[in-house]
Amino acid sequence: MRAEDASLWNDPQEAQKLMRERQSLEEGIGTVKGVTQALEDNIGLIELGEEEGDESVVQEAETAIRSLAGEVRARQIETMLSGEADGNDTYLEVHAGAGGTESQDWANMLLRMYTRWAERRKFKVEVLEVHDGEEAGIKSATVLIKGHNAYGWLKTESGVHRLVRISPYDSNARRHTSFSSIWVYPVIDDNIQIDVSESDVRIDTYRSSGAGGQHVNTTDSAVRITHIATGIAVACQAGRSQHQNRAKAWEMLRSRLYEEELKKREAAANATEAAKTEIGWGHQIRSYVLQPYQLVKDLRTGVESTSPSDVLDGDLDDFMEASLSQRIEGGVGQAVADLD
């Protein structure tokens, strides 16, 4: 086995990649064995309960089998996260739309929602850049989410998110509709080369905003890099020095360009209609209605929740699973239905 080859660690990056693959395979095999054994055990209990006329044993075993279906569904979703960059960490950007304070508050709510989702999965969230709103909320923010399959889980969340509610910033208590956009792109591995020349970009420095201490807020340490040909712009203000922020911004730009290339490949292969659709204000992917009724609805998959408070607190897995299933021909919906 390569993992037992002493020379493997002559290339630390390759060794780490192999060990991650090995761990993933071992976990998958262990899950299959565990589910198979639990299924056999509970089928045996059902047969025993029926022979002895003990209905409680039968019901207990049937309940256990139904819970196994949920575990199998989760594992089936994981098997769909096999794209070129699905296993990577990811950047997530939030941008407020038109609408001033209301949309900026909505952007801040979305940032919290995805942060809470990441925390539920024990992912690490690192804030790279935040532009605060004039009165409340944020104009934009970029975070780095670190965890296994972070990009794979979040990649279908890119798009426009719509909020309908009675605005707390409207003295007449009128209902407002606000829009904010989410953009997700993967952190690229060191072995993926994305060549960008300094002559291809414009680099701007500016004073960081928000919390960060005296040094951060009184020097032009924040960095924005704009790729001239594509118009793609990234910014970072998390580091204490311009050098740190410049290095991170270059990483982010290369990741954005890599994500653009992935989109082109998907579109060329006709992977999904979603991959071919430009992200714009006319392409909403999900609506969150807080008044006059309570409903969150994904406009691509039809998945709904009548508990917006739970969704806004990070309960997003059902929406993500459905959109991932939709991207894969055959999906897992029928497979799970068959288990039921």
TrEMBL record:
Pfam families per the record? PCRF, RF-1
- Could you state what the record's PTM comment says about this protein? Methylated by PrmC. Methylation increases the termination efficiency of RF2.
Give the record's keywords alphabetically.
Cytoplasm, Methylation, Protein biosynthesis
Which gene name belongs to this protein?
Answer: prfB
Question: Which GO terms of the cellular component aspect does the record hold?
Answer: cytoplasm
The record's NCBIfam families line, in alphabetical order, gives:
prfB (TIGR00020)
Mind telling me which SMART domains this protein's record contains? PCRF
Name of the featured protein = Peptide chain release factor 2
Give the UniProt family note: Belongs to the prokaryotic/mitochondrial release factor family.
Q: Where in the cell is it found?
A: Cytoplasm
Which SUPFAM superfamilies does the entry mention? Release factor
InterPro entries associated with the record: PCRF, Pep_chain_release_fac_I, Pep_chain_release_fac_I_sf, PrfB
Known role: Peptide chain release factor 2 directs the termination of translation in response to the peptide chain termination codons UGA and UAA.
Query: Is Mitochondrion a UniProt keyword of this protein?
Result: no
Give the species this sequence originates from: Mesorhizobium hungaricum
Signal sequence range: none
Gene3D superfamilies given for it? 3.30.160.20, 3.30.70.1660, Release factor (1.20.58.410)
What is an example of a GO molecular function annotated in this UniProt entry?
translation release factor activity, codon specific
Q: Which residues form the Prokaryotic-type class I peptide chain release factors domain?
A: 207-223
